[in-house]
Amino acid sequence: QLTIITSSGQTIDVRNIMLELDLYEDIFAPVMTGSVRLGDAGDIISSLSLHGNEFLLLNIDKPTLNKPIIKTFRIYKISDREFGTASLQNYTLWFCSEELLLSSQSTVGKSYKGIRIDQMVNDILMNKLKTDPAKIALFTQTAGNFDLIIPRMQPFQAIEWLLPKSYNNNQNLFLFFENRDGYNFTSFENRISLPTYQIYSRSVKTTSEPEENINSVNYIKVVEDFNMLKAMRSGEFSSSLLIFDIVNRKYNSFNFNAASLANNATLNGNLPANEMQNRLGQSVYTVNENLVKFIISKDGDPTTNPALIHNWLPQTAARLAQLQSFKVVITIPGDILIKVGAVVGLIIQKMETQTQAAANDPLRTGRYLVSSVHHKFILTISTTILELLSDTVSVALPAPITNSPTLQQVIKS
């Protein structure tokens, strides 16, 4: 189903004039979005007076699957309108979940006293955006009772502002996103505890049967590998937090070492850098000056609930930086069941001349978090493009040889 409904109640089925349909999920975006390219000989734009107050009913399935994506979207934009011969014109309709427009039309100015972050997020969704409870897929409880004032932010901006403050025991990075199931407020650690959805490897499609190609990768591109400068500046390895208590007029200093996160859940178990020391005798895990944050706190006030910033700020920054340190994009045969927040396996082969079956890259073959899903439908062809992220490597990196004369000479040069 691909039906436009106007504000005056008119409906039109545009399946037969669809040239291309693109549907997006992103773990760092609050809502699903998409676009549809139409080849229109009936001038729907004029006949229906399209202007941005229209809805798009979407129902997509694959033959014999019977597990459709069913969503109602708001059309918010027309672009790339091209006039062809006679009455034919092509244009693109852009759509998103209704909550994105509602968020842009309202603000949250509210004081929360002594409640958890997940309760605040739920309140914004339910009471400000009036989200249908059936659209809530997963909510993970957070720790800590906070006293917070949200200063007239748009609802999704407010949720984004609350996310870094969310933690619970060994859960250090919380995410808010919409996938085919609905809205999710959950932790990275919760996501990676799920079973592996599928293990992908690069291969050639040999049959048109979808179920026989579900684990084949048609295209693979490593978008980002290690970036030491970016990692250090974002606190991936270590950081320092200076908190000034304005009630007691005291400074507290907290040094953070990301090696402590290795005891928590990770995708592949081994930190992405070893402990080689620089000429100052420091490793990336012992240098704290690369990221220093100064925070003013009123935790010393006995009448308020302490924010306990040292429990979540450095950990969240490190987790987020680690998760985005290795990014790969793959293209697979269309799979409408996969969703952001899933965990998949990816086999990356060594790119070297082989006399037999290709060996695998031991560092990068492993488990990945699906951070973005792009479903592309062109006529009867369906393709899914996945963005995958990894926070760790699958085997331990070689330890630095501290007594190597050659290495020491290079370090000191």
Q: What does this molecule look like?
A:
- Helix content is 15%, strand content 38%.
- The longest helix is centred in the first third of the chain and has 12 residues, at 117-128.
- A hairpin with a 2-residue loop joins strand 11 (174-179) and strand 12.
- It has 413 residues and is mostly beta strands.
What is shown here, in short?
This protein is mainly beta and 413 residues long.
Question: What descriptors fit this protein?
Answer:
413 residues; mainly beta; 14-stranded mixed sheet; three-stranded mixed sheet; 15% helix; 38% strand; globular
Topology:
Blueprint: E1 2-5, E2 11-13, E3 18-26, E4 33-40, H1 44-47, E5 54-60, E6 69-83, E7 89-97, H2 98-104, E8 108-115, H3 117-128, E9 136-139, E10 146-153, H4 155-162, E11 174-179, E12 182-187, H5 188-192, E13 199-202, E14 216-217, E15 219-224, H6 228-233, E16 238-245, E17 250-257, E18 292-297, H7 313-323, E19 326-333, E20 343-347, E21 366-378, E22 381-390, H8 405-412
Parallel strand pairs: 9-12, 13-14, 13-20, 16-18
Antiparallel strand pairs: 1-2, 1-5, 3-4, 3-21, 4-7, 5-6, 6-7, 8-10, 11-12, 15-19, 16-17, 19-22, 20-21, 21-22
Helix pairs in contact: 3-4
